[in-house]
Design brief:
The protein is α/β, with parallel strands linked by helices and about 675 residues long. It contains 20 helices and 18 strands. The chain has an 8-stranded parallel beta barrel. A 6-stranded mixed beta sheet has the order 2-1-3-5-4-6. The structure holds alpha-D-glucopyranuronic acid (GCU).
Length: about 675
């Protein structure tokens, strides 16, 4: 095995007080006994008890109801039709010498077991434990951008552990992946890239289905549904049809047959994720059809099997002219989808990126969330830090995702934050949830940067319970992954919690975004996308910078929000300062709330950002004796890459704006 166990590391705890109750496990009921998921749950408990506590727990099954009603010794796993529980929820309750994990389904028992393990591995006492947990989101899904040749689009942790040389890979890691995912409540995964190229189009054919069925069986044992990204042009590419028009009878028949075949082989299959009419991918626009036509056609074919069709809203013109100040990429998701509200079948879910652009370090929340009222929605975030340091620079993203989830859209008077909307609470929907583009690969530590695993862990925990705080998630993760030593926990948490603001400081200021090297997106290149076709401009000149997205004089994007947000963004005095340059063109001498001019703010934050990275490195050095040597060294190496990246950003950005503006730094620091 050439990889570590991340947060399922199970460090030994020598002085644990509640060992006795963990020495035997009882599974109650025939249904539980026959479930592979419960089997896995029991094995997880046994494995964890052995490694963390040195206990070899015995396991027994009770068949009849009377017996199991009376069971009250050790850990007791029970299926029970408790209506207060969601189908995946559970309760854990200590009664005398029994620790009861109860759920309505085997999945609930699995999640309850992992909850118990999480508590034990953090050294929590079980005495008096009494809790009930229901997931806040029904769909908690990983999106892998893995290609069949083994590469990963925007992958920064090695190659795929799902595919290699156009083959599906199944090995020990497949199961360990499922364990990691299930342990944080993930219940669905899309294993291939949204850009479905070459061999990946064939994943829905007999060439691959038997192997995928094997993989899906492993996932199902951990409560995870397998989804595939599919190619909208598959009827042409593999079906030999002349078109993939969603209203064409032959195309419809082709998909029906194809989907039936998929379900014959993989009865538990989840459904498809589709990127259509986006960045060169095929879609319904070619035939003058709408995205509702395209999505509904596939959804209807999936419906008999309870399959779900997830349709991405990342649809924009990527052939823009930089001279054109009216066309605005930020507007596009809303413009393309708002009129289709209510026109999608009930098993269609629109998947919307958190911001209107593309996972920048700072963006406003996509206005589409506050606009759609009769459509199922999934929020898409990106754990793979494509624009936030690529798992070389540290950027703990949970605080960003929390801000997004807590954002009030004003779609309704009460209860319309993003968390409310994507959980289905706002419009009483059940097919909703949260997706992340994952940051995993076949590197030893799964995520390239050891500390980037906090984003993967945190995504799952947050998707399960959007009410958890970023610091709480960080503490859980550090304790399970590294150590319960308070110095380690508090120092690593401090480093994590500062990392997003720090990254923002040394990169692009006040929501303007981009300024990155084209194509690979790591490191600064201020004009890298400025005169390009992607619609990603900063519009800097000798007087100022920023994009005017107001209704009054700009692209009108600000008007896509509900009031009072639209007016707030429209006016530069009320626009939240961290997004000022996203919404407004601002002069260099404009005074910010801090009293500083814009240009001085740019200089200062860039110097501060580098100092903060230096400070992180100092803090990390203080942990040398307290961490495993390999972890310490790997992270130290990443920090030194981050420091040189931060300096490069600082000097390029400051120099660029110094040259444009001609304004001296008030503190006379070195600008080139
Ligand atoms: C970004 C990213 C692409 C990706 C796309 C998407 O543009 O750079 O690699 O395919 O997002 O989300 O579909």
């Amino acid at each position: 095995m050439n990889y570590n166990k991340c947060w399922l590391n199970y460090n030994l705890i020598e002085d644990y007080s509640d060992k006795e109750i963990l020495s035997n496990i009882t599974v109650c009921g025939k249904d539980a006994k026959e479930s592979l998921i419960v089997d896995n749950a029991v094995n997880e408990l046994k494995d964890a008890f052995r490694k963390i506590l040195n206990i070899n727990a015995s396991c027994s099954y009770l068949k009849n109801e009377k017996e199991y009603d009376e069971a009250n010794l050790g850990v007791i796993l029970k299926l029970r039709d408790n209506q207060e529980l969601h189908s995946e929820g559970y309760l854990i309750k200590q009664i005398d010498k029994g620790l009861h994990i109860e759920a309505r389904t085997d999945k609930g028992l699995l999640y309850g077991s992992f909850d118990l393990i999480r508590r034990i591995s953090q050294g929590e006492t079980l005495d008096g434990l009494n809790l009930m947990e229901n997931p806040k989101n029904n769909i908690r899904i990983f999106n892998h951008w893995d290609n069949m040749d083994g590469s990963i689009e925007r992958g920064y942790s090695g190659n795929s552990f799902f595919f290699e040389n156009d083959q599906v890979l199944i090995n020990e890691r497949t199961r360990d992946y499922a364990r990691l995912a299930a342990s944080i409540g993930i219940n669905a995964t899309v294993i291939n890239n949204v850009n479905v190229l070459e061999a990946a189009t064939d994943l829905i054919t007999d060439r691959y289905l038997n192997k995928l069925a094997e993989m899906s069986d492993i996932f199902e044992g951990y409560g995870i549904k397998m989804y595939l990204s599919a190619n909208f042009a598959a009827p042409i590419e593999i079906g030999g049809l002349p078109v993939s028009d969603p209203l064409d009878k032959d195309v419809i028949l082709w998909w029906e047959k194809c989907i039936k075949n998929v379900y014959d082989k993989i009865p538990g299959f989840g459904g498809f994720l589709i990127k259509a009419d986006s960045e060169g991918r095929p879609g319904p626009f070619t035939y003058g059809r709408t995205h509702a036509d395209g999505a509904n056609m596939l959804a209807k074919a999936l419906k008999p099997y309870e399959g779900i069709l997830i349709w991405r809203c990342f649809v924009y013109n990527c052939l823009q002219d930089w001279r054109d100040y009216k066309t605005d990429r930020a507007r596009s998701a809303y413009d393309n989808f708002i009129d289709l509200d209510g026109k999608f079948d009930d098993n269609v879910i629109l998947q919307i990126k958190n911001g209107p652009m593309d996972f920048q370090v700072r963006e406003p929340v996509s206005p589409l969330f506050g606009g759609l009222k009769k459509t199922n929605m999934i929020l898409e975030v990106q754990a793979a830090q494509e624009y936030t340091g690529q798992q070389k620079d540290l950027c703990y993203l949970i605080p960003m995702w929390k801000e997004i989830l807590d954002f009030e859209t004003h779609a309704k008077k009460d209860g319309s934050t993003i968390a409310d909307i994507v959980s289905g609470r706002t419009y009483d929907q059940d097919k909703c949830g949260i997706a992340t583009v994952t940051n995993t690969g076949n590197d030893y530590n799964w995520t390239g940067h050891d500390l980037a695993a906090a984003n993967l862990y945190g995504f799952g925990r947050l998707a399960w319970d959007t009410g958890l705080s970023a610091i709480q998630i960080a503490r859980e993760w550090v304790t399970q992954t590294f150590s319960r030593d308070e110095k380690v926990v508090s120092t690593v948490c401090e480093i994590l919690m500062k990392s997003w603001p720090t990254y923002e400081k040394y990169t692009s200021p006040l929501g303007i975004g981009w300024m990155v090297n084209p194509n690979h997106h790591y490191g600064p290149n201020i004009d890298g996308y400025e005169y390009d076709r992607w619609g990603t401009y900063h519009r800097a000149d000798r007087n100022g910078l920023g994009v005017d997205r107001t209704v009054k004089s700009g692209t009108g994007y600000a008007g896509q929000y509900n009031e009072p947000l639209a007016s707030m963004y429209e006016d530069k005095e009320t626009c939240p300062e961290e997004l000022l340059l996203f919404f407004h063109y601002i002069k260099y001498d404009y005074k910010l709330k801090s009293g500083k001019t814009l240009i001085q703010h740019i200089y200062d934050t860039h110097f501060e950002g580098v100092e903060e990275v230096e400070d992180m490195i100092e803090k990390w050095k203080g942990l040398k004796e307290l961490l495993a040597e390999d972890v310490y060294e790997r992270v130290s190496m990443r920090f030194s890459m981050q420091l040189s990246n931060a300096k490069e950003w600082r000097d390029r950005v400051n120099t660029y704006f110094y040259r444009k503006s001609g304004v001296e730094d008030e503190h006379g620091r070195k600008i080139y």
